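Researcher: Let's continue the batch. This sequence belongs to PAN2-PAN3 deadenylation complex catalytic subunit PAN2 isoform X10, and it's 1034 residues. Same format as the previous ones, please.
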Amino acid sequence: MWDLPGPGHEPASPASAGGLSTTAPPGKPRAVVLWVSLRDLRTFKVEHEFDAFSGSLSDFDVHGNLLATCGFSSRLTGLACDRFLKVYDLRMMRAITPLQVHVDPAFLRFIPTYTSRLAIISQSGQCQFCEPTGLANPADIFHVNPVGPLLMTFDVSASKQALAFGDSEGCVHLWTDSPEPSFNPYSRETEFALPCLVDSLPPLDWSQDLLPLSLIPVPLTTDTLLSDWPAANSAPAPRRAPPVDAEILRTMKKVGFIGYAPNPRTRLRNQASSSCSEQGLLFVAIPYRLKESDSEFDSFSQVTESPIGREEEPHRHMVSKKYRKVTIKYSKLGLEDFDFKHYNKTLFAGLEPHIPNAYCNCMIQVLYFLEPVRCLIQNHLCQKEFCLACELGFLFHMLDLSRGDPCQGSNFLRAFRTIPEASALGLILADSDEASGKGNLARLIQRWNRFILTQLHQDLQELEVPQAYRGAGGSSFCSSGDSVIGQLFSCEMENCSLCRCGSETVRASSTLLFTLSYPEGSNTDKTGKNCDFAQVLKRSICLEQNTQAWCDNCEKYQPTIQTRNICHLPDILVINCEVNSLKEADFWRMQAEVAFKIAIKKHGGEISKNKEFALADWKELGSPEGMLMCPSIEELKNVWLPFSIRMKMTKNKGLDVCNWTDGDEMQWGPARAEEEHGVYVYDLMATVVHILDSRTGGSLVAHIKVGETYHQRKEGVTHQQWYLFNDFLIEPIDKHEAVQFDMNWKVPAILYYIKRNLNSKYNLNIKNPIEASVLLAEASLARKQRKTHTTFIPLMLNEMPQVGDLVGLDAEFVTLNEEEAELRSDGTKSTIKPSQMSVARITCVRGQGPNEGIPFIDDYISTQEQVVDYLTQYSGIKPGDLDAKISSKHLTTLKSTYLKLRFLIDIGVKFVGHGLQKDFRVINLMVPKDQVLDTVYLFHMPRKRMISLRFLAWYFLDLKIQGETHDSIEDARTALQLYRKYLELSKNGTEPESFHKVLKGLYEKGRKMDWKVPEPEGQTSPKNAAVFSSVLAL
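Model: Same format as before. Here are the structure tokens for PAN2-PAN3 deadenylation complex catalytic subunit PAN2 isoform X10:
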């Protein structure tokens, strides 16, 4: 059924005509149609909707899987007939290529005699036939000669051999395709015979290899059958035991060698783990097959393989728009025309999500907005090639420099993928698993949280700083045998094991984070018992459990009681929520309902009846007295987490934990001299949540409370504000939104609490640890590299760059992963994921002085990742150039070259090059705009194409470069010469009008030459003769 609703009136009696259902009030004209709805004939529910025209719908027809429509569009002067027919594919439920016709379509019908032709009729009598799936249609137009001025109706006979037209004078015009057409004057549907009531034999599926032939009925016989094998030739094949539920294994307690666990209630009574019906065989007994499925509440098996179409019908999903997984829409220009400002109105920097294993972007933002961690990490520098602390410090530096532009953590994630412990913990996802959302993101980010804190703690314990990198590497935070990560996050504990023989063993330990341990039986308790978050946290920190342990006194394993006592509280309290099943999710949901009822009663219990409440019934919440100073109802929903908690160390090594509110602070006064009395107040700083979305497989976002120092540094104001960080989407939010968790789609994963006045305890000065010594000569990693092959001269001490010096830069890249694209039904290509590039060669040439044009950096970057394409034609990189065993180039690590460029950026030099935006993006550097002189923009007119370096060099410098391959030294030197030419033509930028005329001549010449450099025969490129003997003679 097709439902065509119209605006402006209430639906009246339906008027149907040929399967067309519209609504028209009695005595009034037919309603204006705006969209087409597909309804289920059994339930009459709307299954899908198609947007028709901006004005109204004139006619439509259906044939097979195609729906064709014509109508009117809104113009400045009113409604105008749209000459584009919209065609929809009902299999994919989306529009295909529209058809442009040469008449004003008022009526249309399919004529599927031989092909699915369309007849398009205008009211003036013009008729055109075309194919709905063809890109090119003949423009033959036939004319109907009506008696009246307009045609009012049109239809096709059931035999498809005649066309009938009705005009405004009441005349009917008949067109036929033969002199004697066939008509069916009593057209009705074919009546079929009743189904056979005799029981038929069950159908046999011959595609099943395990189908027993005994199901085929055969006559009875007394002879021996071939299947009557003796018992000696057969053996019993029992079913394999199904896997034990993970929830049972998690909650199981062992007594001796026997384990006991409560029923997780994940299956109905007498329900088997798999059945024959799941395999599609109702009557066939086949061997037992283990079912591989995830019974957790956040598993998604309906994620579309293609991301195209995932954003359709957003109103049908409960996930708020700002929480949905954001994707970058790539065009033929890449990222240049993508508007990141639409997603981020602030000056804070987001992170791009298309890099492999970028699921940790939210946690990187959390660590960045911890002021002591940010300063500590940026003060660290070591000689280790793949050091997460160093790479995280480089990324934090980029986030500091950015003014709202997104950054990418490609170098950090590159180092992360090389750490064996990360791979062993399952933290490195395959591209297919990450794209399809098959990974358990909540559990994954909690493991990543524990891993990154441990790894940073280990990296920062290295106190020996190389001479070349000396500076602030040995941070003032550090003490011998410890790191600042340990001082910030570590909690000292005593683990006591008490055997039943009375023997007690005490062992000191420390941890960087805690995992919430929920009360037993919380999933079965439906009474709504109130349980504060502080109680659950205390139970998780001071954990007590019964387990089997070795007793030295008994000299055997004995049941022991293990308790944990806190000796010292951390400055930053990190909590993994471990909401990995329906049990924990129901506990959070139940406690939020109880907290909601308590909050309503606390403020008088006034709830308006015209409001909808999902958590509580308004009749049960007390008398409607005045609710003075009460927050809004929406702010009280789904809230169980407190903004502050108060923790106190007792004399007997106990711990008191309670929720701390603003009212408590007004009653007891601000927490002063906390350390003297052992009382600490922790404020909620960040929450990391898992967004459940069946379309995309879910995502991870963070709510972060940004402090005054960050606002002062970025925006020049001093205040605190909560923000939502969803990759490159950053949006300010209300503080209550950070603690509201609708367990249907928003599940808490990680919590960060920090002590009040934390920043005052640490030195937050950042000292740049990169010194000028990084530019001095260094040894090559290549074993076969010779001195005679050196292509650069390192800087001398008297050549150290100063502020404002020019440096020519060019970089070459290789491809690690090919581009992922999808071909649409209309023939257009949509980029799903761009190709992953890696820097392979970086060249810097002197921009002034007697050695101008001589390179002082020409590093080939060693890579351990598999290279898919060396792009030799465009990069000049050949297989083997990046391999330390066989390369003859000056090979070095990416970190070593990165430090050289960082020093040049920090010192204030200006980089000259062609297409530097892409170079810095792949190198993963953030360079201030006033330090970039890009010739691709210097020689560019607005709304015109970008011009290649090869064409600019030929036009302005009479040089022919980039013959067979590219050479970064040649490109950097050419960019410097072009910049000098730009200063000459524009008179140092003082005569823009004269330079504009030069650019107009450049573009006119380019159009005539089709932007190609002529290659006359017998003439060699000037680059072949431009050899610098001073470089080759090294």
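Researcher: Any comment?
Model: DSSP finds 23 helices and 41 strands in the chain.
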